[in-house]
Amino acid sequence: MGTPIVARKRLLRFLVAICLVSAFSFVLWPHVEQPSVTTTTISGNVTVTSDVQCDPDTDVLNRLNIRKLSQYVRRDVIAVPSAANDPLPIKHLLNYPLFEPSLPSVDAQGNPLEEPAQKDCKMDDPITVQVPRPPRNVDASHIDFGVATTLSRLNDSVEQFAHWAGYTRTRIFALIEPDARAAEVQAKADLLGINLYITESDEEYQRRYFSLVAHLAQNVRSQTRWSCIIDDDTFFMSMSTLVKALSEYDDTKNYYVGGLSESIPQIGVFGLMGFGGAGVFLSRPLLLELSDPDVFEACQNMDFTGDRRISICVYQNTETHLTINHGLHQLDVTGDVSGFFESGRQPPLSVHHWKSWFHTDMGKLSVVRDICGDSCLLRQWQFEDGWILTNGYSIIKYSLPVDPFEKTMELTWDGENGAVYESYLHEFGPMRPKDEQKYSYLLEDAVLEGNQVRQWYVHRDEANGDQVFELTWRAG
Ligand SMILES: *[C@@H]1O[C@H](CO)[C@@H](O)[C@H](O)[C@H]1NC(C)=O
Ligand SMILES: *[C@@H]1O[C@H](CO)[C@@H](O)[C@H](O)[C@H]1NC(C)=O
């Protein structure tokens, strides 16, 4: 049966109409020139593309080592402390976008609009976030730390120690190779509010490391309840959280508290022990037992080295087992560790390897604590346009939508000794595969200026120009 004649006529009319509309559109459609990106050179060696609609601060660009810039956005953040004891979730949704919707480049008649260039790249509306009320005056006088290192490494570390140990009444005992410049580092520590006790020792490094056990035992004072052996790149995120975590254990008993490697092959190689970089905590009774001269001598002469010698010494000479604290992190991971820091979980108690196996400047990450306290580090705010701010670490957007309350951690890093997906599940699970197309601005610098903190998050793109998002934090 043929198509009814009425339907055929309708189809014909429809086709004619389409042709007419197309022809008119072609003639009448505003011809917008696709603006090609041009670059301008400012201040000698920095070029700025025409996408940048404002005058960025060239000192900042030089400091960030930016040669070509294609975006600069500034926005204020007001940190409002929550009511006392209000437990704020780590992740929070905000019902507005992070970026301003882009303005139309043509008016209703199709004429190009002259965009008002903002003078200082700043968005009008601040971001307002709730942060936990920072605890005041942490008293950590019952915890002593011990570190075996060299003077120049100690000199680099004291500034980072200051972030967690400064003005907390804790003590740090350092055993270093003899070095005439010890007084200089001592003076620096004094200025930063760290109770640092430097002892020079010409023992070989492995002996010096284990000697920390006896050294800490000789220095216990009446209030000492914990002694902790750390590496010079062990970083605690918050002393008040650490004090709280340790208070969960009965420190009148023998306790050996530590973190396992997050990677099973590493545990296979080194053993089931408290990995030194995560911080190894010995309760006072255990410390005194291990420093008994006979026990200490026997352990000092073992073939096992470093943190392994401590674990074998504990297992061989006492009835104490390892108590794992999953907040203590050795971080035996390399390369891109963003999945760990952007997990939106409870922040770690300690991190390690952050200036060797991977690069996350924990000192810069922590600068914003001057505004909102250490409990606001790594807090997460997700904006309506899908962007996620992880405070002190990054501003990102996943290439595929991720549930805002997703529980998995993105496995972004590389491992050692043949580690695979399952190798990490005991510490990092649940996990999900890496989002290779994730768009990231990573924190590269942060400074305290008066009563505000400026953070610079940078997306590097050598070909098209780097993009910068600056956040200026102040207390509300
Ligand atoms: C060029 O860049 C360097 C940083 O690498 C900076 O110190 C210098 O001041 C810049 N030169 C000019 C003319 O801006
Ligand atoms: C310690 O570090 C400072 C920089 O913060 C440096 O000027 C000084 O020379 C260093 N001292 C030693 C003994 O390494």
From TrEMBL:
GO terms for molecular function: glycosyltransferase activity. The keyword DNA damage does not apply. It is a single-pass membrane protein; Single-pass type II membrane protein. Its main location: membrane. Keywords: Glycosyltransferase, Membrane, Signal-anchor, Transferase, Transmembrane, Transmembrane helix. The chain crosses the membrane at residues 12-32. Residues 192-330 form the Fringe-like glycosyltransferase domain. One of its GO terms (cellular component) is endomembrane system. Pfam families: Fringe. It is found in: Endomembrane system; Membrane. The keyword Protein biosynthesis does not apply. PANTHER family: FRINGE-RELATED. This is Fringe-like glycosyltransferase domain-containing protein. It comes from Aspergillus campestris (strain IBT 28561).
